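Q: I'm teaching a short session on how sequence maps to structure, and I want students to see two examples side by side rather than one. Could you give me a first protein with its sequence written out and its structure tokens following it? Keep the formatting plain so it prints cleanly on a handout.
A: Of course. Example one:
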Amino acid sequence: MFTKEEIMNLLKSDILTLKLKPGTILSETALSERFQLSRTPLRDVLKQLSLESYIDVYPKKGNFVSHIDLDSVEQMIYMRSTLEKEIMKDLASQLSLKEMQELKEILDAQKAAIREENAADAFLGLDDQFHCTVYRLAGREFLWNLIQQSNVHYVRYRKLHMLEKGKLLQIWNEHQRMLEYMANKETAKIDDLVHHHLREDINSLEFLEKFSEYIKK
């Protein structure tokens, strides 16, 4: 027997990892059988998922995994870009050797993950770990946690981009340069790099055409 919280977390994970793709119908009957849970508590779970934008509920039609909202993605990119430029410049003035090593070890693990089968999931986890660590070392972990609360569209957008050939190595190289700029206090170079790192693909026609079925119209 699953608790409502466990079901919520499992469904969120399935949606964020694209195991449940945008537009997929979530049958109450199938979910009730899968989790051995009656309809009433299951509807509580679905209602909460709807409030957090994981699913869309259409009366008389059903529950569907939400399509990726590029407006939400752009807003998230804008916020992260604005914050991370300042956070990295602040951190450059105070980064210790121990903290540099902590970030380097994450990047070493991320580079190794590129060679793994189904690399995107492990790489994405380490991508988050790198950025989260930057926020934490700068004393801005609260802001990172705040970002995670409204991340459903952005996470899936990133996951789709990481399916592109060569994309993982490009992202890793940019992380490596971020660390080098912070370590060498080359703060004048940080703005352009962060801007490119976070915003390069948001207007990609190739992305829109390739994954149009997943994008909110």
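Q: Perfect. Now a second example for contrast.
A: Example two:
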Amino acid sequence: MRTNIKCCLLLLAGLLPMLPVCGQGKLKFFNTCAGSSNYRLTRGDTVIIQCDSSLLMNSRNFRIYEAAYKQSKKGNSGELLRSYEALVQQQDTMINNGTRDYAALRLRFDSLANSSIAALDRTSKDIGVVKDSINNVSMQLNQTQVIIGDAIKTVNDERRKSFLNKLYWGIGGLGIGVAVAGIIGLAN
């Protein structure tokens, strides 16, 4: 019994580090607009802010604000200025990084937009060529149908003529045969 409890406790202790991972990637709503609230967010969380403004701060910035707050409580203005300078420097770094990232994204977006427009132009030209080819094939099919119709009509006419020619030859042969037989019969 004790070994089962020990095994369960060891299993629980092994799974304990995974608890923060299970909470990642969640959808969280920020809707406490009338006062201050603290939310714990982790990487992958999506935050929907339902107020007109909010302040989101990482742990490094929080420590700078906390140090400045503590220094203001103590009345030590030198440390307070250093804390604010560190905060301003951190904000400047964040702004410069954001500007650099925006410029890189803008460059990628412009490149993607130009590539998309070029691909669209090529596709439009290809569609135009295919459309022209289909029109040519359709026109050739129509001409072929007219030619086949004329050929069928010609073949049918020739069949009728052929039948009449055979009939005329047969009647002519019969007439000649009767005439020859009549002449031979009269000569005897």
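Q: What should students look for in example two?
A: Point them to this: The mean pLDDT is 80. Also worth mentioning: The beta strands are 27-30, 46-49.
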